[in-house]
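Practice problem: PAC2 family protein
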Amino acid sequence: MAFLPSQDGQIVIVGLQGPNSPDDAAAVVIDILKRHLDDYHLIDVSVAESYDRTQYPPFIIRSEGEPVVVHPQVVGIEGSIERAGRFVQTLLVTGPTPLDMWEELIEDLLMPLRPESDVVMLLASEPAAVPHTRSLPVRLTSEDPDIVDISEVQTAEYEGTANLQDVMAVALYEKGIPTVSLTCEIPDYAALSPSPKAALALLSALEDITGMTFDPEDLTEASRAWSDSVDMFAESDSDLAKRIAMMEEEYDLATEHDGEDIAREFEKLLRRREEDR
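Answer key — structure tokens:
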């Protein structure tokens, strides 16, 4: 079952920069998806935003010789993506994560959405005790119990300090908008550097749940280069190298004892081929 909107609905994919994705993997995925949009245009999502000006400063451009100050903001990129002969109306939402005024931003985002036809995907990444030398896991969760029947989607059970994605997921659930959060776990010892490997993992998970296919462009090669650079960094720190080796052992043991991995991947492939006919 593909997680897609109805024929007259749209899929909204949110990928912000900042705390929700410290390595900016979510924003990288949005940039790739934008290149798959047919005849896209920009729209204002919300003007109720505030930012850390040291991290996201405004910049000046020249328009017909006159200076124009451009401030950071969350924007929407609207268009359509073709899937199996159908053009799926798509809204990509990206930009820096606001410091506050989250409620206003969420209200502006929710206003045009329709529970009976639209769906939302929230992309993010978070530091975790995972080795960079293995596949980076992507956790799919939803507040909506009706969605957890979809392959790989689990019931959201997190309790604790909330980020913007967490608050947004609850607000969407309360309005009845079908929503899935995709969170890639990134190595905590390399969480602040841009990670094309995390972006590639998010893109693959997005393909799995929607049945769409996207060209990863240069992400595959960039992922190898990123892994090589982290290898060099780890080799210079013996304690870190030992910790990575321990995480690799734990990862390999966990996947070795999960004999259903291959079967699940094969089922995904069959489903995608069937839906693309």
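Discussion: The chain has two domains: 9-233, 236-276. Students who identified this feature from the tokens alone can consider the problem solved.
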